[in-house]
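[job 0417] fold request received: Integrin beta
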Amino acid sequence: NIHKMHLKAVWLNYSSRSVLRSGNECIKANALSCGECIQVGAKCGWCTDTEFLKQGEPTSARCDELESLMKRGCDAARIENPHGGQRILKNKAVTNRKKGAEKLRPEDITQIQPQKLSLNLRSGEPQNIKLRFKRAEDYPIDLYYLMDLSYSMKDDLENVKNLGTSLMKEMSKITSDFRIGFGSFVEKTVMPYISTTPAKLLNPCTGDQNCTSPFSYKNVLKLTSNGHQFNSLVGKQQISGNLDSPEGGFDAIMQVAVCGEHIGWRNVTRLLVFSTDAGFHFAGDGKLGGIVLPNDGRCHLENNMYTMSHYYDYPSIAHLVQKLSENNIQTIFAVTEEFQPVYKELKNLIPKSAVGTLSANSSNVINLIVDAYNVSPWSFFIKISSRRSDHHVSPIACCFLFPMPSQVSFNINITAQGCPKQGKPESIKIKPLGFTEEVEILLNFICECDCHKQGIKNSDMCHNGNGTFECGACRCNKGRVGRQCECRKDEVSTEDLDKNCRKDNGTDICSNNGECVCGTCECKKRDNPEERYSGKFCECDNFNCDRSNNKLCGGHGRCECRVCICDANYTGSACDCSLDTSTCLASNKQICNGRGNCECGTCRCTDPKFQGPTCEICPTCPGVCTEHKSCVQCRAFGTGEKKDTCERDCSYFNLIKVKDRDKLPQPVQAFPLMHCKERDANDCWFYYTYAVNNTEKEVHVVETLECPAGPDIIPIVAGVVTGIVLIGLALLLIWKLLMIIHDRREFAKFEKEKMNAKWDTGENPIYKSAVTTVINPKYEGK
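[job 0417] inference complete; emitting structure tokens
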């Protein structure tokens, strides 16, 4: 049953300076040496080429990401980029021992593999180690029973007196190598805790009860495999007493943890059963008895009695946790129901501890111990600590918990962030709590490059020996600055030196793009690490060149001192003009179909009739309408020869439908346009235009067909017309007959009224005749 876990430890942080983690961290670190550069991160490299830096670039420009260095012209062989590694120094296989097999000494049993490793760590580069833990069966167990002997535990003591043989019998089901010991505690032997008068010291109990004198802690029985001896010695113990309810159990636990020789602990599984029916005193409570010195965490047993209870205060919980962990002791708190909440909170603070409910008279103590043991060992803790050169042990990461099967595999990543002072080796230990075995890991830090070893101290290349020439650059001696260490720090910003940083005797120092250091411009860095200033006066840059398609130098060149240096087959101020004529070849292998010129990889057609990428499209040439007829039919009306392959063959133009012929576009000078009239198989006419607008082909088509009347409908129409004419004639005759009848009636009525009329014959008095007779006076009648 293999249980795999992946752990990540990124906690070896010895970096002495802050490094920005956004963008290119290599550039932003301003590393002045190869060693500083490789400590920034695993992506950073250092170019050792002495000719690598351009004029105006600082020494720190040698530190950059590997890809960027090679792009800037540094050969891969000149880039320092060391890597870490690991070696296994001790790798003894885990013990595959079954219960009942040959008995082994505890020191011959191996449960964790490997046992010792050596890692070479480079900052930011994780090293993965694999550990295997296998819990050995029939592993030896030491159990120490620590009991509260205050008066309230009187009935409990009677039940514990037979605990030895019974517990030995029960634990033999788990291991064949089991030892048991016994200790007891009451309270500190100072007056406020145990009695109001000195007379009560001999017998602190009331009435006729016979009690022993109070004590802080007594080691009654050293760990032994003799259960009968346990029963015998425990049977001789007597109850004692004190005044307050909390007991001095923490003093006892501390002594059990640190007095290994007196208790008899072996390097095996160590169990401490703490049995009480009361709470506990802790650090600070000693002031009630005038005790102010903090507990020193050392063994003070004389004749198996704790002799310094009146001198040292109770230990703190954190102090107990430290000592229990250091000595691999697992604690089982066997307490009554009343104090379960208190000790459960204590359990959360003490790794690998357990809490069991003790009955009122401790009759269930054996079951409690067995149950707690069966649960506790299956909770596995890892403690990681670092032992530094000053012999100070400091926990780095501690204590994670998971259910433990019979075998566990770990993948642990260890990453260093920077280097310790002077790059001294360190060591860490990975240790399962409750077990004595551990994995020791020796850490060696890569803090310098290999080229550092070939450095030339006081080199002439560093201005008269004012620095060490290493890894292609000068590392200046103390008090010297400049690329060649040519200046003292107090000379950096003098007026005379600043004159050398002004271009053409101008007012701007380093073109306002840098600082004058030792009379030499060191150009400032941009937020974008890919953008750089350069030049003697920082007057150049690689980001202010012409752009095409929003790309610097059209993406076909590099920007040097604000001028594009184009790649092969490209020209123009923005390298956007291609000299390649392959894109201008027409299907007849002629450049621009012989009807145009190839300019920057694009045809410029000289014949106005022709257009398109290679001057092969002629929208107004004969045959254009016939060529596109079938595709227009299938896309606009779903008919024609290509209706079954329309989607495949006829998607080369954009189709736009209009309602009638008046809505069709008219020819313009911007691009040629052809009006087409075609007839389908049903003698229906459809109208459309075909045009090429730049490279877009457009077809506008009238959405309705113009169809003549068909032969089948003529008889029907003729019959309808004939019927309409006949009906019209009949209606006309009826109307004529009615009019004649009406007229005759009106005329007869008129005649009748005329005959009945009486006419007056008088003359109008103002009437004058319209006839005038004139006689010629000379007329003689001849």
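[job 0417] notes: Confidence is low (pLDDT under 50) at residues 1-22, 385-400. Residues 714-755 form the longest helix (42 residues).
[job 0417] exit 0
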